[in-house]
Amino acid sequence: MEIKLGKQLFDLDFHPWSNVVATGDISGKLFLYRYAAESQQPQRLLEVNAHKKKSCRMLRFVNEGRAIITGSEDRSILAMDVETGTAIARLKNSHRAPISRVVNLTESTIASGDDEGCIKVWDIQYRSCCNSFNVHEDVISDMTFASDSMKLIGTSGDGTLSVCNLRSNKVQTRSEFSGDELLSIVMMKNGRKVICGTQTGALLLYSWGFFKDYSDRFVGLSTKSDLSTNSVNALLKLDEDRVITGSGNGKISLVGILPNRIIQPIAEHPDPVEHLAISHDRKFLGGISHDEKLRLWDLDELLQGTGNTAKNNSAVSRSDSDGMEVDNSIPKPSKGTKRKNAGKGLSNSNTFFADL
């Protein structure tokens, strides 16, 4: 099924327990739709002008789906009630640069990244900044969170990967320059592998605890059959062995990890894929592109012929007591730019949320 919005879309997220999907567009509007397998046209539940005249770049459901967080080009973070569409709080000037990424950490914390490489952690309950890590020199393209070890892993357009330890409030390590822009990230193999998508279409595999350099490189998606780019803009874990990739040529593929192989293409957008998400019951795959449409596919139908349907395995990250080796130093950026201060530690006094 398709939802035509009329403007370029930037992100999407599924509600954690209800058949509701949210998306935001370039004009700053936030949309919520209710979908059903038997219905061809989803029902619009909500349309909110969340960020006036500035793009609504990122969004995530929080607080068990009762609220939604949005991040914008205007550098603000908005918390909104899902039922009423009313603003709960707005975090103005949360970053020095436009917000590029928002991810959930715990029930009460989120992380945000911006266009200049800064990552911040926010306490939703107390509406304050807990940590600030100025670790990259280019846009924060993606982040993922290892909850067992409380480590936030980020990728950047500067071609490096960083690991921020939220227990010690320090940047634990930063990779060497990979030779490519890192655009997307996902954890696989029960947390033992971190997979990064790149601008040239290669998948870089990092082993947990050894983040200085990637251990494997899969280039099966980077073979160009036309003039379009094959950049891997989106990665979505299906299970511990398979990942769904969204590429700059519009193709959505199912890829096996270790052994690395393209299992098969499963869907396609006419324009570059920007983001992918799976519904709470794992029945629908959602995707957005540059064509101003939100698409929802039946996941079981997409996976027919791949050997089996989606496994409902959750990622389990390795804990600090695993005995794994970790990098102890943070290399200087390979692009010749001096690294900024790594982490500023806890700063509960930095309260920016203002009730509306």
Automatic annotation (TrEMBL):
Residues 308-318, 346-356 have a biased composition (Polar residues). Pfam families: WDR55. Residues 308-356 are annotated as: Disordered. Gene3D superfamilies: YVTN repeat-like/Quinoprotein amine dehydrogenase. It comes from the Eukaryota. WD repeats lie at residues 266-300. The keyword Repeat applies. Keywords: Repeat, WD repeat. InterPro entries: WD40/YVTN_repeat-like_dom_sf, WD40_repeat_CS, WD40_repeat_dom_sf, WD40_rpt, WDR55/POC1. Belongs to the WD repeat WDR55 family. PANTHER family: WD REPEAT-CONTAINING PROTEIN 55 (PTHR44019). This is WD repeat-containing protein 55.
